[in-house]
Amino acid sequence: MEKIILASSSPRRRDILTAAGIPFEIVTSDADETCPQGLRPDEYTVTLALRKLNAVYEATKSERLILAADTVVAIDGLILGKPENEQDAFEMLSRLSGRVHHVYTGIAMKKGGKLVTDCGVTAVKMRELTKDEIRAYIATGEPFGKAGSYAVQERGGALVESVSGNYQNVVGLPIDLVLTHLKNDFGIGIFS
Predict the structure, then answer these.
(1) Which of 7, 25, 151, 188 is deepest in the core (most CB within 10 A)?
(2) pLDDT for 42-88, tens place per residue?
(3) Which residues are marked as active site?
C-alpha cells in the first residue's frame, strides 16, 4: 500500500493509523481553524477537515491520498473545541461533568479528482467531577490542545464513565470510517 498523507500533527491520529497498519507521512496544515457560527457539529468538523485537506493539497499537489480530520465535543447545542485558557477548560469540564456529550470527528479524504467526507459520532458520559478534581486535571496541562478539554486515551480517561460508540472517534480518528472509504471509494484494502 502506498503511503497516504496525514494532514495532521496529532500524535493520536498518528497512533491510530499506525495501529491499523496504514503507512503514512505527516504534512501539517496551517489552515485557519475558525469556523462560521451556526453550523451543526458534523458540518463544523467536516468544514475544518476540508480546509486542512485543501491547504495540504495546495502545498503538495500530491496525487497520493490525503486524509484530514477535525474533532469537537458538543453539548447543549454548543460546540466545544480546544480550550483557550484554564478558565475556558474549567468551564468546559464543569459543563460536561456528570452528563452525556457527543464527540464528532469529521474526515476528508482526497486522491486525484475524488473527494470523500464523512463524520463519526460517539456518545460519552463524564463522571460527576468535583471542582478540585477539575482543577487538578487542568494543572496536568493535558486539557490544552484537546477538544472538550480532555484526552480519553490519557489521564482524562479517568474522568469518563462510559463511551457508547467508536472509542477511536473520541481519541480523534474514526478508523472504521477511514477503512470503509479507503476500500469502497478508493479501492485500497489494507487486509486484501
Answers:
(1) 7
(2) 999 999 999 999 999 999 999 999 999 999 999 998 999 899 999 99
(3) 70
Which amino acid makes up residue 162?
Answer: S
DSSP, collapsed to helix, strand or coil, labels residue 121 as strand
Q: State CA 10 to chain mean position distance.
A: 9
Cell of 59: 502545498
One DSSP character per residue, 6-70 reads E----HHHHHHHHHHT--EEE----------TT--HHHHHHHHHHHHHHHHHHHH---S-EEEEE
The string of pLDDT tens digits covering residues 136-179 is 999 999 999 999 999 999 999 999 999 999 999 999 999 999 99
The pLDDT, as a whole number, for residue 133 is 97
Looking at the DSSP bridge assignments, the partners of residue 110 are: 66, 115
